[in-house]
Amino acid sequence: MVSRLKTVVLATSAAAAALVPLFGDPRVTPVTHPIWARMLLRALEMNEAVRTRSQASQVFSALSWRESLTYPADHYVRGDRVTVRERGGLRMVAADEGTGQVVYPLAVVRAGDYQMRVRLAGAPERPATAEIVPTGGTGAPKTVTFVPPTSADWVRGEPTHLDPGAYTATLLLPQGSSLEYVEVAPPCLNPIEPVGGWTPTAPTTVDDVAVTALKALDVENELPPADTPLERTGGDFQVEAPAVPASAGHGFETLTLKADRAGLRALLSVDLPEAGLYTLSAYGVTGTGQRWVADGCRKAILCPSETTGWRVVMSQAFGSGRHTFTVALAAGAVVERVRLERKKERTPDYVATLRRLGFDPGPDGPVTRDRALAAMRFIQDQRPSLLARLCGDVVLPEIGGPSPQVAEAGAAAAPPPRVGPLPPPPIGSVLLPPQPSASPVKLLSAVEVAGPRS
Predict the structure, then answer these.
(1) Which helix or strand (DSSP H or E) is residue 90 part of?
(2) Which of 43, 78, 297, 418 is most buried, judged by most C-beta within 10 A?
(3) 334-342 and 230-233 beta bridge pairing
(4) 235-261 confidence digits (pLDDT tens)
């Protein structure tokens, strides 16, 4: 018996020793980009996204969102009353008996209007619906309706506003319908990624940690200024609706935009002398909410408040030349001045800013595992201040309708108001170029075991 026990112990020790050169000792294994990306998702409370994404490229996509997220229909995490079939080499999900249900995970790291589309077939008189709800079931679902064609084709749903968080998208398929693909298209956003993008085999440096941490917490406005900011007043806006001019005070500097119960929509054009990362800030009162859109693409929400002061609207990379900023003001909102400040954006600036905010990622070079874990905890500790700035979407009534309001977080968002024809496209678009897809590198099992767990 003792001899058999010794044999087992020796075999176990030999197996463990063999795993070290194969997978690497977790205590000394370098923190690569895939490992740090997973740690970031955990810090942002995206644990479901970590569990359901086995490839490095999938983890990178969840943070960068440079391309649409596409699920083959049979890649659901839960299903009920559905059958998986194959036709012409294509697998699909069919609802043969009653209403079928399939559930897909969705991780959102940036607030914005996300659009879902599906490739399905069925009876047009029996539409399919998707319910998007935060993981955990808190908050009202966002409902998207799809009218299926008789033969399989793509059907686009209305955009819906989502704040950062983990969600599930549940598709309800009427009897007789079949589903081939589910796709979620991101809005224009500021991707969370290191300088140069994510790389499957690259070690994570202190610079990478600093850049991605500030982006994940959406505090690039804390970077030092690169030059004197550009300032404009409410009088520089072109009012779209209602057709009344900005209210005048006791001088040009006090010209303001002020919304009554009907709300107000206005547009500002600004010529930026240099390309770079800019922070847009607005001085005034947010009232019952403000919605800002840069170049008809990147959207930001300012939550209700009755206090007067400067508020950060967004930080975004812009090209040189003319750019447009559209603002929708709900009741009581006031804009007196706006400021566009170009930021210093070298990696040492990010490192110095992160240290000033309270976290030292360590000396230059590859980050240690201990500092990476500490950085993850720092982001987790700072996340409540990020969530406190979220409140859903601004819902404006028709001119002359009931009082505007800010939709509660998790409540169904109304489509954005029409602001009339936009000016010609600006020089240097806010749209981001597509990122080459990362190679499908599978993360090592031993690394996942050694990584942080919630």
Answers:
(1) strand 90-94
(2) 43
(3) antiparallel
(4) 999 998 775 554 444 554 458 999 998
